[in-house]
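Duplicate of earlier report; Glyoxalase input re-posted below.
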Amino acid sequence: MKNIAVLLAGCGVYDGSEIHEAVLTLLTLSQAGVHYQCFAPNIEQMHVVNHLTGEVVQGERRNVLQEAARIARGNIKATQALDIDKFDALIIPGGFGAAKNLCNFAIKGADCEVAPEVTGFIGAFRDAGKPVGFICISPVMIPKLYGAGAQGTIGTDEGTATAFTAMGGEHHRACVDEIVVDEKRKIVSTPAYMLADSIAEAQSGIDKLVHKVLALA
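Output:
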């Protein structure tokens, strides 16, 4: 049975992992009959957002690993606990946490840096030649992790696509139900809620991404 790692960035679209994208990823993996294990960096998240109002909650602090445990029902490990030999592939749901906690793209754009814990974690899959799926905004990390010419998509948003290109990546426009595959580097990406207007639309691309990652594994 294949064993797939899922990297989470907290809990909640505005300051963590997008919950629909994360759950759809886990559901599709389960339906495919494979085992998965959730991971998250044991770091403080950038800030806390009131998801009812969209406003930042001043003075409140939360931990990315602890928050991500809500989605994983407590079955989650810190990124430093990864044993790369036990996993066949990795999938990373989106949400602003991917651009705030896994990296700082939300603040620095094309000048962003990937968090050290995350660089080491995703880099282990890259260096082992194992496929990685990037969903929604998480593909902005692709050029930083894979270097010049790495292919991916964030959908059709021109500003984000321009930043992707400025970082050295090769961006491909894609619709919500499409995936972009970098066969050489075994990278798969899909826009999901960068374009989706419903959970059903988000599922259409995520389902294809999961199955393509499993095929490459």
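Residues 199-216 form the longest helix (18 residues).

Merging into the original ticket.
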